[in-house]
Amino acid sequence: MPTSSAHQLHGVAPPSQDLLRQWLQRHLDLLQTERDEEQRQSKLLLSKTPPKVLEHNGLALLGLGVAGIRIGLGAKMLIELERPSAYHTSTAFPAHSFRPGDLAEIQDHSVSTVAEPSSKSSTKSAAKSKTQPIQGVVYRVSDSRIVLAVGNRKRGSGKAKAVSQSAAAASGANGDAKSDKRDARSGDSTKVSGDELEIPERVRLVKVANEATYDRMERTLTRLAKALGVNVKASGSGDNDSSDDDDDDDEPAADGNTVSAPRTASGATALIRTLLGLERPAFAEPPVDLPLPPFNDRLNASQLQAIRFALSAKQVALIHGPPGTGKTTAIVELIMQLVAGNLGVPAANDGAGARDTRGVRILVCGASNLAVDNLLERIVGRPEHREALKKRGAGGLTRLGHPARVLASLHASTLDAQSSTSSEGQLVSDVATELSSALAALRPPSAANTAGNKSVRSQPRLKGNERRQRWEEVRQLRKEYRQRERGVTRAILDRAQIVVATCHGAGGKQLAGREFDVVIIDEACQALEAVCWVPILKVREGGKVILAGDHLQLPPTVKSLKKGDGHRSARKEKGKGAKKQDKQTESKDKTKDGSATGGESDAKAKDDEAQQSSGDDDEEDVITTFEVAPHSGDGDKTTAPQRTTQLRPPRTLETTLFSRLLGMYGPGLKTLLSIQYRMNSDIMAFPNLALYESRLEAHDSCRSISVRDLDNFVAPPSRSRQDGEDGQGDDEEEVETAKVVFYDTAGCEMYETSSSDQSGDRGPSTAVGEGSKSNYNEADLVLRHISLLVARGIRAEQITVLSPYSAQVSLISSLLRTATFPPPPPLPTDGGGSAVTAAAVNGEAIEVGTIDGMQGREKDVVIISLVRSNENGQVGFLDEKRRLNVAMTRAKRQLVVVGDSETVAGQGGYLKQWMDWLDENALVESVVTLSMD
C-alpha cells in the first residue's frame, strides 16, 4: 500500500532566485513562440486559402444572412445566421466542423480573404467593405441555423489580431475604432465602438484561432514571478481577454473570501514553494482516512487508497490513472468526501480569522470542457451526491464557462443559468427585455431574409442620429445589465462550495479575488503547466492541489514544437539516419510557407505532424531532464536510492506540471489506480507490460469479454454462440471474434502515399491538409474487416476506426460514405415464426477519427490503421509510445491493427517490441492471401 514516508521522495536542491527567473522566463518565451506559431497558421489560413476551399473543408460557411439578434445569458448578443433562400437553393448547411464553443468570425461575404496585392480585382473587392469582422463563440448549431454569442467588444483589443489582420487587410479596414466609416450601400455610419454591430446583408462565418489562453497564461506567470520576487520580461502582445465573457481577472478582490496576503518571506505560499522545489511536500501522519463511508460502495482498494493519499497530502498529490482505471470515479468520491466531511477548512488558529466556521471551498478544473463536464455529470448525476450537498446547506455547485461550451444536460449547473433563475436574477430580467427591444429596432428583417414571406413587412434601417442614439441606449442598457449581473454572480459564488471550470476559465473575472482550500485538476497531463498555474494561484495559504492524469498518454498539443526540440533522439542510435531524414521531410512539409499550398498544409497540420511531439515526453523524459534515475513503482516501492534533483527550465511546453513534479520528487508523490474496467486482458497485456510495469489488473467484469458477448452478435448458422470456444472453426470467423487481430502488410508493397503527391485518383487531395500521409490498401483492409463484423451483427456505433494521420482519416471517411455493408442472414425466432432480418449498415455511421480525438473514450471494437509502409523504414512520429498507448487502449472487446511490421519495427525500440508481441499473441491475418482472393 502506498505511503507518504519522506525517504520515498527525492531530495530537491532549492533553486536560486536566478534559476527561478530562468525557469519563468523560459516558460514565457516558449509561450510566445507557441502564440507566434498559432498566429502564423491562422494568418496563412485566412490569407492564402480561398473561401470556397475553406467551406469545402468545413472551416467556413458562405453566403449567410442574419436571421435575428437577441440578448442571451450574460448580456451576450446572440446573432443567428442562416442560408437565405434568396441566395441558396437549399437552406441546409453543407458539411462543416463548427461546434458549440468554437471561436468564429463573421466577415463580409463580398471580400476575398486571398491576399493578392498584384490583383486589381482583389483590390476592388477589398474596397467594397469597411465593416470590421465580428468575433464570437458558436452557441448553438442546427442543420440550417447557427448562433454566435458575442460578448462586449472591447475597443483597441489586442486579441486575436493575428486572425483579424489578414481579413482587415483584405477588406481595407485599418482597425482604427475611432474612424467614422460609411456603409458602401446606404451611406450610413458604420463606426464600430464598444457594443455596436454593423453586419452586412451577406456574410460568411470562418473558424479562427483564440489567443485568450496565451494572454491569461502570460499574466499568470507574471503574477507568479512577482510572488517569487523575480523579474521577467513578458511579451505584452495581448492586453485583453477573449471575445468570450469580459473575463479578465484583474478585477479588485471580491467581497467575502478575499485572497489573503502571502505569509512567506518571498511572497509565495507554501504550495507555490513546494511546486518549485523550495519546500518539501508533506503528508499527514498517520494518513487521513475517509471521514464518511464511501458514497460509491463499488470503489476498489486502489481507488480508496488514492483518496486517502490525496486527503493526507498537505500541499500536493498526484493520482496516476491509466486507461479505464476509474480515475474520474475516484476524483468524484474525493470531492464528495471533502465537501461532506468539510475537510480542508483552515483551523481557527491559522490566521484565517472567522473562516473556521465556513464550508470547504473546492475549485475543480480540467484541461478541457469535456473533462470538466465529465466530472460535473458524475457529481450531479447521483441522488446521494445531491442530497449530501443539500444537507451541507451550501449553494452546492456552480459551473463557470461559456454556456456554448457546456453540455446541454448540465446547463442548469452553470453560473449563467443559476443567475437567471435565482431570486437575485429577477432584478436583471427587465433590463434584458429592454435590450432585446432596442436591438430589434436596430436590426429589422432584411429583404433577403423575408423573401417570399408577405406577412413580414420590410422595415427601413435606422439612420444617422437616430441610429447612434439607439446604439447609445443599447450600450447603457448593457452596462446596467452587467452591473446588476455582477451582484448576482457574487451572491451565487459566495454560496457555492464547489466551483467547476476549465483551467483557463478559472482565471475569469467571476473568481477574481477568491481563494479556495483545495484545487483539483483532472487530465493534468493534457494541460500546459502554465495554464495549471491559473487555478493554483487561487489556493489559499495552507491549501493544496491534487493533480490527476496519466503521463503515459497524450501530452498537450504544441504546434511550435520542432523536431530537434526533444532529446529522445539523442538517446537512440539505431536507425538514426533514416529517422532523421524522415522527420526532416515531415518538418519541411509542415513549415514551408512560400506558396498557398504550403500555408494551407501548415494551417491544417493540427492532427498530423504539427500536433506531434518530437519525443516521448513521458516519465523517462522528465527524469532525464531533471537528472533522476528511473524509479519503478509507486510509493510502496523503494528500489531506487534517494537522489537530489533540481528545478530546470523546460525544454518544451510538452513537459507538464504532473510530469515535472513526478520527475522532481519521484514516485513517492503519486498513487496508482491499478484495476482497469475497460478492456479484456488480451488487449491490456501489451501496454501493461511495456508501460505500466505489469501493475495493472483487469477487473472480473471485463477480463474475458469479447464481441461474442454482445447481445447483437450473430454466430454463423452452423455454430451456436457457445461453439468454437476452443478455437476451432473457419479462419474468417476467428478474425471476426479474436480479441486482438493483426493485418500484416509486410512484403506486399502496400506503400504509403503523401497527399501532396496524390494525383487525385485515390482519396482526397484538397489544398488544406496536403502533406499528410495515407495508405489506400490499408483503408481497403479496414473496410473489409468492417464488413466481416457487420455480417456478425456488430452495429456501427460499436466500431471506431483510428489513424494518426488526418489524410488517412479523410480517405477512410470518403470510402465509408459510399459504402453499405450487408447485414447478417435472417435469424429464426424462438417460436419458429418469421425470421428476424437486420438492416444493412451505412458506412457513414461508423466513426472515423484521429487518435488524439479519442482520448478518454472507448468502443467495443477499435481498428487502427498505422499507414506507414516504405522501403526506407521511416516511421516519423508513429514511434511516439504515448499516442499508440491511447490508440490501443480505446478498445474493449476487439483491437484490430493494420500495418506493415517490417516498416514499423525497422527503428527498433518500442515499435519493434509491439510488432514482436503482435506476432506472438495476436491472430495474424495473411494479407498476401487476402490480396490473391
UniProtKB/TrEMBL annotation:
Q: Which InterPro entries match?
A: Coronavir_polyprotein_1ab, DNA2/NAM7-like_C, DNA2/NAM7_AAA_11, P-loop_NTPase, SF1_C_Upf1, SMUBP-2_HCS1_1B
Q: Which keywords annotate this record?
A: ATP-binding, Coiled coil, Cytoplasm, Helicase, Hydrolase, Nucleotide-binding, Nucleus
**Bias type Low complexity, positions:** 118-131, 159-176
Query: Residue spans with biased composition (Polar residues)?
Result: 449-458, 639-648
Q: Where is this region: Disordered?
A: 110-133, 157-195, 232-264, 443-469, 556-648, 713-735, 751-773
Stated EC number for the protein is 3.6.4.12
Can you name one GO molecular function term for this protein? Answer: 5'-3' DNA helicase activity
Ranges in a coiled coil: 21-48
**Where in the cell does this protein reside?**
Cytoplasm; Nucleus
For the Helicase SMUBP-2/HCS1 1B domain, which residue ranges apply?
Answer: 25-154
* Protein origin, superkingdom: Eukaryota
The residues covered by the DNA2/NAM7 helicase helicase domain are 299-560
Provide ranges: composition bias, Basic and acidic residues: 177-188, 575-593
Q: Which PANTHER family match?
A: DNA-BINDING PROTEIN SMUBP-2, DNA2/NAM7 HELICASE FAMILY MEMBER
The name of this protein is: DNA helicase
Q: State the organism of origin.
A: Pseudozyma flocculosa
